[in-house]
Amino acid sequence: MADAGHNLSDVLSLLFAWGASVLVRKLPTQRHTYGLRRTSILAALINALVLLVAVGAIAWEAIHRFGYLEFVASDTVIWVASVGIVINGFTAWLFASGQKQDMNIRGAYLHYDG
48 with 61: CB under 8 angstroms? Predict the structure, then answer.
C-alpha cells in the first residue's frame, strides 16, 4: 500500500508540474497583469503538501504494523522495487535538464531523485 500511495503521489506531482508549466506560458491579461507565472510556485507548494501527506500515511501504517506482524513476499517486493528504481531514475534523468531554470521542475526532479 505504501508503494501504491507513493506512486499516486508521483502521478499527482507530475500532473501538477505539467499543469503549472502550461499555465506559466499564458500571456498577461488585463485581469492577470503578471500572467499565471505564480502557478509554478503554487504547484511546488501543493507537491510538497502531497509528499507530507504521503509520508504521514506511510508513517501511520508503519507504526500500526508494529502491532500486527505479517508475512512479506520478499522476492516480489525486491522485483517491484527494482523496476521502480529504474523507472524513477529514467524520469529523474528527463527532469535533470530543466531543473536549474524552473522551481517547479526542480521540485519534481528532487522528488524523483530522492
Answer: no
CA distances from 83 to 65, 79, 90, 99 (A): 25, 6, 11, 24
Tally the residues of the chain: 114
Neighbour-count burial for 29-45, b at 16+ CB within 10 Å, e otherwise: eeeeeeebeebbeebbe
> What pLDDT shows up at residue 1?
62
Mean pLDDT across 91-97 = 71
CA distance 3 to 84: 9
Q: For the CA atoms of the chain, what is the radius of gyration?
A: 18
Q: Write down the pLDDT at residue 34.
A: 66
Among the listed residues 31, 32, 18, the one whose alpha carbon sits nearest the alpha carbon of residue 91: 18
Predicted pLDDT at 23: 80
DSSP-assigned letters across all residues of 60-90: HHHHHHTTS-----HHHHHHHHHHHHHHHHH
Q: What is the pTM of this model?
A: 0.58
